Amino acid sequence: MVDFSLWDIFRNLLLAARWTVGLSLVAFIGGGLVGLALLLMRLAAWPGAQRGVAGYVQLFQGTPLLMQLFLAYFGLGLLGINVSAWVAAGLALTLYTSAFLTEIWRGCVNAIPKGQWEAADSLALNFGEKMRHVVGPQALRIAVPPTVGFLVQVIKGTALASVIGFVELTKAGTMITNATFKPFTVYACVALMYFALCWPVSAASRKLERSFRRGH
Amino acid sequence: MIQLDFIAVLEQWPALLRGAAFTLGLSAVAAVLGVGLGVACGWARAWGPRPLAAVVSAYVELIRNTPFIVQLFFIFFGLPSLGVKLSPEVASVIAMVVNLGAYAAEIVRAGIENTPRGQIEAARSLALTELQVFTRVVLPPALGRVWPALVSQIVIVMLGSAVCGQISAQELSYAANLIQSRNFRAFEAYIVATLIYLGLSVGVRQFLNWLGPKFIFGRLPNAGHSAGR
Hints:
The complex is a heterodimer. Chain A is mainly α. Chain A has helices at 6-43, 49-61, 65-78, 85-110, 114-122, 127-157, 169-180, 183-214. The longest helix of chain A is centred in the first third of the chain and has 38 residues, at 6-43. In chain A, 38% of the residues are buried. Chain B has nine helices and no strands.
């Protein structure tokens, strides 16, 4: 039997943590883009966009992320696409993230005083100009703290990808446990690594929020 | 052409029903104990002695910055090596309570800290004990103020309990997994389970929105001028 020292456990988990970070970034960036598209569809008052996006948000916020991952995994398989865990996890987490971000950002846009919209309208700005020059910059400032805060949820969400066989931090923890029979040590290390990833992000979000409040 | 066969899944409705009931049961126990823990921790952080507040805030930060599934695995797989052997159900409940407690602590604290000073002073001047001030004067309106956030968090924990199937707690996602292993209709089984979860989350939210004002914190003074009690 191979003997794993604490350092071996730690080193292997650290290697797996790269995939947690990678998947988080994919989901966060992809979800941000999709979420932005959904937000713009809503703001541009496309027919049906209001109810469609609200239903989309309700669907993703009202069901477990684990089920969404399973559906992506088995659904893509049904479509005849050869799914790697990467694709299924990336897709499910992207959609999940987009639903939350679009809702967070809608709140930020709604927080902009009505006068700003009317002023932009009275200057005959079209939709794109209004977004770029008037609403966008102001909404962006409000949106930064909650968006950074949501990144923590995304990082923690990637842990569920372990269930469909994506080898990231949690899955690596399970595999190392099976090899070493030291679940206490291994899962404690796993938890500490998630904490090391998430805590700075939470702290940054709180700090941004405080400095934003002071600025007002 | 993809052939979806939902009948094969729906034929197994007793398993789905049992799973859904199990999920609701887990969530109900976790909600009661978790909110209780959250209130205690919220009190400790807002009013408690310094060292206790520090311990509680470490607990809150630790839980909020690690995934639920890791907390669950730590409790179920990790604790037995310390001699604490837990059944999947007990481990699930403990993980859910510990998780909800940390989030609820933050939420409740926000409610407590927004209590007008005058109300606390008035209560003290009526010679209420500190415990009475907290439980009779501060807590009910504080819970009322943060109830929507608390309800959302309870729903999130309920949805999170889908993970408990991974340690073979026999809740809804476990039932879906069981069904798909019998008839190989994985996609259909998970669609049905997902829709049940959606229904549960809508139902639980409405139930709690009704329950809170009716039984837990009473009518709020600012919800009209009917606070004649």
